[in-house]
Design goal:
By secondary structure, the protein is α/β, with parallel strands linked by helices. The protein is built from twelve helices and ten strands. The structure holds 5'-O-[(R)-(carboxyoxy)(hydroxy)phosphoryl]adenosine (KG4) and zinc ion.
C-alpha cells in the first residue's frame, strides 16, 4: 500500500475516454487515454451521440487499466475526481454516472471538477514541472485556456480562486482551427494538421486580419469569427477565379493571426496584473508556433511561460486528478447522488 492521497480521475467531456490515478496532486501513477478521434474523423467532427456510445463501451476497461497501471485498488483511493461540465451532455453523463456509482458502492468521496479549471492543473503535474523550470507555477498567475470549446484568460490568485478576465466573444480558437482545416480539406482535428502544414508555409505571404477588440471594459477579449470569414472568403475568391490555393501559406497566415492575438492579450493581462507566471492549457496550447512565440515574447518581460507536455494539453484525466486534489483538500466533496452534468457550467 502506497502512502499519500490517491485520487482516481475520470474525464469524458468530449471525445476522449480517460482515467488516471494521481498521488498528492502532482505524481502521475497512471494516465490512460482512449481517443475516439478516428471514429469521429469519418464525420469531420465530434458526433455527440456516437461519443456517448463509445464512452459507454470504453470507460470501464479504461478505468480498470488506470487502476492496474497505478497498482492501486479501489479500497486505497481517497477520492474520485470527475468532470461534470462544461462539455457535451451525453459524454459528461457517462463519466459522471459511473463515478457516482463507484463512489456510492465503495463509499469513496466524490469530487466534481470543472473541465477548464482542470486544464490549468495540467501545469502542476510532475511531467509539466520538470519540462519547464523544475518548479510549479507560482501564484498569482495568468492562465490562457485555449481549446475546442474555450478561449479564456484567467487570473488566479491561489488554488481554487479564479477570475475570468478575458474570453472569446464568438468562436473558440480551436473551433476556428478545426473549421479552417475542414475548409482546406485537412481532416479532423484540424489544429495539429494546420500546425504541421504552417511550418512549410510563408507567414507573411497572405495576411489575414488580427481581431483586436476595442472595448476598454474588456481589453483581453478575443474574436475569431472575422478571421474565419476572411479565410473562407479568400478560399471562395480563389475558387471563383480558378486560382490554385497554396494551403500551406493559408495555414501559416491564419495561424499567425490567431497566435498574435492570443500572445499579445495574455501578456498584456500578465503585465497589467503584475504577475510573473503565465500558464498555457487546453488543446491549442499544443501548437508549436504558439509555444515558441510565447516563450520569445515573454523573455523580454521577465515572465515565465509554463506549458504542459503535448499529451497533457489535450483532454486527459491526469489534469482532473491534479485539480480534484485541491478541491478535496478544501473538502469540496459532493454527497449529492443527483449531481448532474452541466454542459455550460460556469467557473
Ligand atoms: O482541450 P481539447 O482536447 O478539447 C476541448 O476541451 O475542446 O482541445 C481540442 C482542440 C481542437 O480544436 C484541436 O484542433 C485543438 O485543440 N488542437 C490544436 C493542436 N492540437 C490540438 N490546435 C492547434 N495546434 C495544435 N497543435
Ligand atoms: Zn478540453
Amino acid at each position: 500500500m502506497q502512502e499519500g492521497i490517491k485520487i482516481l480521475a475520470i474525464e469524458t467531456s468530449c471525445d476522449d475516454t480517460t482515467a488516471a490515478v494521481i498521488k498528492d496532486g502532482h505524481k502521475i501513477l497512471s494516465n490512460v487515454i482512449s481517443s475516439q478521434r478516428e471514429t469521429h474523423s469519418l464525420y469531420g467532427g465530434v458526433v455527440p451521440e456516437i461519443a456517448s456510445r463509445e464512452h459507454l463501451k470504453l470507460l470501464i476497461p479504461v478505468v480498470k487499466k488506470s487502476l492496474e497501471e497505478a497498482n492501486v485498488s479501489l479500497e486505497e483511493l481517497n477520492a474520485i475526481g470527475v468532470t461534470h461540465g462544461p462539455g457535451l451532455v451525453g459524454p459528461l453523463l457517462v463519466g459522471l454516472s459511473y463515478a457516482k456509482s463507484l463512489s456510492y458502492a465503495k463509499n469513496i468521496p466524490l469530487v466534481p471538477q470543472h473541465h477548464i479549471k482542470s486544464h490549468i492543473y495540467a501545469n502542476f503535474l510532475d511531467k509539466s514541472i520538470d519540462e519547464n523550470y523544475g518548479v510549479p507555477p507560482e501564484f498569482p498567475l495568468i492562465a490562457l485556456v485555449v481549446s475546442g470549446g474555450h478561449t479564456d484568460i484567467i487570473y488566479m490568485k491561489n488554488h481554487n480562486e479564479f477570475e475570468i478576465i478575458g474570453r472569446t466573444v464568438d468562436d473558440a480558437a480551436g473551433e476556428a482551427f478545426d473549421k479552417i482545416a475542414r475548409a482546406l480539406d485537412l481532416g479532423y482535428p484540424g489544429g495539429p494538421k494546420i500546425d504541421k502544414l504552417a511550418k512549410k508555409g510563408l507567414e507573411g505571404r497572405i495576411e489575414f486580419p488580427k481581431a483586436k477588440l476595442k472595448d476598454p471594459t474588456s481589453p483581453y477579449d478575443f474574436s475569431f469569427s472575422g478571421l474565419k470569414s476572411a479565410v473562407l472568403n479568400y478560399l471562395n475568391r480563389c475558387e471563383m477565379k480558378s486560382e490554385t490555393v497554396d494551403k500551406k501559406d493559408v495555414a501559416a497566415g491564419f495561424q499567425k493571426s490567431v497566435i498574435d492575438v492570443l500572445v499579445s492579450n495574455t501578456l498584456e493581462a500578465a503585465r497589467d496584473k503584475n504577475v510573473n507566471d503565465v500558464v498555457l492549457a487546453g488543446g491549442v496550447s499544443a501548437n508549436s508556433a504558439l509555444r515558441d512565440e510565447f516563450k520569445e515574447k515573454a523573455k523580454d518581460l521577465g515572465i515565465k511561460v509554463h506549458s504542459p507536455p503535448l499529451i497533457l494539453c489535450t483532454d486527459n484525466a491526469a489534469m482532473v486528478g491534479a485539480s480534484a486534489y485541491h478541491s478535496y483538500k478544501e473538502n469540496k466533496i459532493s454527497t449529492a447522488l443527483d449531481l448532474n452534468a452541466v454542459p455550460n457550467l460556469e467557473m
